[in-house]
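Task 17 of the worksheet. Students: predict the tertiary structure of the chain below and write it out as structure tokens. Keep your answer in the requested format; marks are given for formatting as well as content.
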Amino acid sequence: MSGKRVIFLLVGFAALFLVRASLAQTTSNYPNRPIEIILPTSPGGGLDFTLNLLKNRVEKLLGQPMVYIYKPGAGGATGTVYAKGCKTDGYTLVGSTISTLVICPLTMKGADYSMADFTPICSITTNPIVICVKEDSPYKTMQDFIQIAKTKGMKYATPGALTSPHILMEAMGRMAGFKATHIPHSGALAGMAAVLGGHIDALVSSSPGVVGPGKLRIIAIVNIEDKRMEDYPNIPTLKELGFPFTYAPVNALWAPKGVPKEIVDKIYKSYEKAYDENKEETDRIAKTGEQTVLILSGAELRKKYQEQYDFFEKTVGEMGWKKK
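Model answer:
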């Protein structure tokens, strides 16, 4: 081997050693400055509520503040696209939902990203989707609703077209053999008013707060773990009723693809510890926002999101709603 080749190899090994040493130093000192979290939604929404649940405790564990950067628009695509292009040093994370990271890239032009562009950190909360009718409705069960829907032109409300409640209801209609008319409403309260006024037969929503005396009655639920709701133990899940759905919004933290595993683990363990040390209080606060704490590791989170992706990709494809 020539002297020049030996020198070249030595320089290469030295450079590689320095890069690895620098990376090790970076991850061992992480974090040594504030962490930015991109929120692709507006302030005050459900994702904002989620991230604030454990924020103060996680900041103490990490020793650095977590600063929110709001970039709403295009159903969450604007902020998510921005986060995709950020550095992979762990100082920029992104808040996500199934809607922003799964449904948007399947259905929306301009949502030029996929789950493969991001590294999962951890989930924080989830909440069920409920199917509700007027309290004195003749549809006493989900089976009643489906049976009548096969002969009557039913109408149902959701928070909007191509939202998860809309897609779920359409998928269920295809499986059960009924067709109901979708009427989008701006929020659960508007949908509740329409049902109470007799203009709509049902509301499909992720807000159980519309339920109660003088409000609506739940006839079925769907959630990520296929469990009946603690407050409504007599209400069956859609899976119990024969529909293979275990979907619910999962609010989580991701990072641009390529963040070192040591950093991912440090953030996840901080959320896990912050919750373990304050479970009772955190569960109580989460309930006021109609959410349930669900701390999953990055690997578990990716698996949950992939399951939802597989379901929604199939469904929106069958409906002809997949972006061209």
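Marker's comment: Confidence is low (pLDDT under 50) at residues 21-25. The chain has eleven helices and eleven strands.
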